[in-house]
Structure formats: structure tokens, C-alpha cells
Records
---
Amino acid sequence: MRLGSYRVIGVLFTLLLSSHTAQSAEDDCRSSTQNDWNVVAQTCPIGKGLWGRTPEKASGAFWVQCGLIKKLPEPSFAKNLPDSIDKDTVVFRQEGNQFRCLVGPFDKYAAALTARDAMRQHPAFSGAFIRDALLPDSVVTKAQGNKPSNKKPKSKPVMALKRDYFSVAGIKSPKPNANERKYRDGEIVWWRATLQEATLACESDGMKLVSESTLRAIAESAEANTQLSTRLPFWVAEQNAFDSTMMVPIPLSKESALLVLCE
């Protein structure tokens, strides 16, 4: 194991002692080297996405998520990293047959913010966002075991998978899978998703959620706007809903099931 791998383990081990026993923290976030990259298990806690929100504390444990991919990249992919990002700070969390790309962890939110902005300068990482590893409900707790509980289990974040798309005015809309919410408008079947589901789906295929300015331009085009649904709003990159008919943002819950466009 390289020096960088030990450094990642050390930082994670220190940060996670408050929520794990010493042994489980070390096991969960023990880094191995695969294809010249640092890889950790899915049980290593990475917290929840801040999605533009400022954390309650400026110090803690922060990751920058840089994508979700089917397989580990070649070592030469490191050349695509910004000069300010050390390759040894890049960690891939293995999740089934996928790998979540992460940079960190950072003990200061400001440092994570700087890294996120640097990552976003590269087209491959334009959807990079910050995760707070110490959010109370984001830690994997082994101590619970199989003990019965009267509490309703919290829903797990939906993993973005590679999807089929249909074209809408030069950009793409993910097609719904069989067991997902959908909305039929004429011959078109739209996928209805939460903000997190929509964002992850676009990012997993190297795109990002449509921006308000792009959606507004489509809606203002006499030819293009006929391809948009007029009944439901869309999620946009500004982290809010946008009504393409009334041309205004709408204050809806991020758990609302809205339409999705990726660019």
C-alpha cells in the first residue's frame, strides 16, 4: 500500500472515531490499491451531499464527490486532475459493480470548496459537489446489528445507473425504469425524480442537470418548446424547480417527483 493510502486511512480513522469503534472505523475505511487508485469499501461513511447548502460547522469531515463510474479509470486518468488536486487524495468507494469518485477528506469546509471549484473547471467533473461526512444521519452504524426497531427505516439514497435517453431540443432526458415514477405526455414517457435522483442520474453519464438559463432558452423557442411537457416543472442545476410554461422558479420540496433534463 502506498504512503498516500496510509494517509487517507489515518485521516478517516481519526474523523470517524466518534461514530464507530476503533476496529470498525479502521475496517470500514481501510484503503486498498486497485489499478493504482485508493479504493475503500461501501461501508466507509461519506455522509450526505450539501447541494449548495453551507454546513453548520466550518470544520469537520468533507468530501468532494467527482462522479460515479462503472469501472476504475486507467492510472493515466490522473492527468485530467487539476494541478491543485493530489492524486493520493482521490478515493474510489466501491458500491456493488460501481465506484464513487471522491476527493478528500478535508477537515475544513473552505478547503473542500476550493477543491470542488477546481474540479468543476474540468468538463468531466463539472457536477462535483461537497458531502459532509459528519451529518448525524449519514453514518453507517454496525452496532445496530439485527436488533428490532419500531422506527421506520430511512430511505437510502438512490444510486444512479447508466440509462437510456430521449432527445429534447438538443439535450437529453433520462428514460424511466420499469419500477420508477413516470408521467406520460402524448407519446413521451417522462421520468419523475427527486432532485437528488435527477442530479445523480445526469452526473453518472458525464452530464449535469439542465441549467435554468438553458431551459428558459428552450421554452422561449417557438420550435423547441413544443418538445417540453406543459404539466409538470423540471429540476434545474440551481437546485430548484422551474416551470417552463410560466417561466418562473417554484419553491417545491427537493423530494418532489419532477421532470429531468441533462446537458
---
Amino acid sequence: MKLERVSLNQFKIFLTFDDLIERGLTKEDLWHDLPGVHQLFHDMMFEASDELGFELEGTLLVQVHILQAQGMQIIVTQYPQTEDFEEEEDYIEMKVTLDESRELIFSFTDFEDIISVSHQLQQVGIEDAAVYFMNDLYYMEIQTLLRPEQRENLIAVMSEFANPSIVTSVRLNEYGKKIFEDDAVRQICSYFA
């Protein structure tokens, strides 16, 4: 589990599917096992609170983005307690929304990392991708249809260089600058040999 404080009232949690399994849940359980999921979120909130020094109170908006083959990214936003509940200490209300993405999109802070990862992706047979630039980040959308063993290789390689992204290809096409529309890995490897 990775934690990142975004602002005074917001933090992010990233869990891989292996992290979920270690906690006794599967991806399918997120949609069906409500008591188990509630306990998972409860435990994660307090673990994040301890590690980030984030005081949990009031209403928490929990947005869960399930990322294909990568895990899930959870964005937690805290809203101040309302006057109705001030007398109740330790009151936490969680509003949870789940969203699942079928796209494989990763974000990079430096184009040099895209060059490095492209050489490694080419070695494992993944060449079809698109590359975008938006909001000071580079994004790589993997367009190759992957077999399960390729997916595992992809996740291993990408975790060294990039972060999974919840930005959609629709948003990247609309607001991002297209650097490579398709076949990005092959092109990058030939330009930056």
C-alpha cells in the first residue's frame, strides 16, 4: 500500500491486487462483499491517518478507482464536521463511490523514463501504445491486447518507472498533447536507440 498526502484535507492510497489478497479480498469482493469492503476501508483510513498524521473526523468522500491489472487508487477527501455532529467524538461518515477502468494508462514525470520503459517493453513484446503530455506529466496508454503473463510483465516493468493513472484516454485525447498516437514503443526505441 502506497500513501500520498495531496493537501490538508485530501490523501491518496494505492493498493495493488496483491495488497488486496493479503487483506483477504479479491477484485470481485469489492462489488459484492460489503462487510469485508467496509472493514477494508475502515482499516485503510486509520492506517493512512496514523502514517500521514491526518486527523479523521466528519465526512470522508472516498473515491475508489479500480485500474485494470494494476490495483486500485483511492482518493479520500475530508469535509469539516457539521454542527449536528460536533458533540459526537470519533464520528466518521464515509461516502464511497466505485469506478472501474479497463484502460492501461500510466503517468510519468520525465520523458527519459518513457524512453527507458519503452526499451524494456519492447523486450517483452509490447509495442503498441500512445503517449500524451498533459498538466506537466507524460502519459502512456498501452493499446496492445495482453495475455495474463504479459500483463504481469507489464505491471512489473511499469512499477519501476511510472504510476498507474486514473486519467482516461478520452480526457487525454481532448485536453492532452499527443506525442505518439500509436506504435509508440517501437517508434521511441527506433528514435532513441
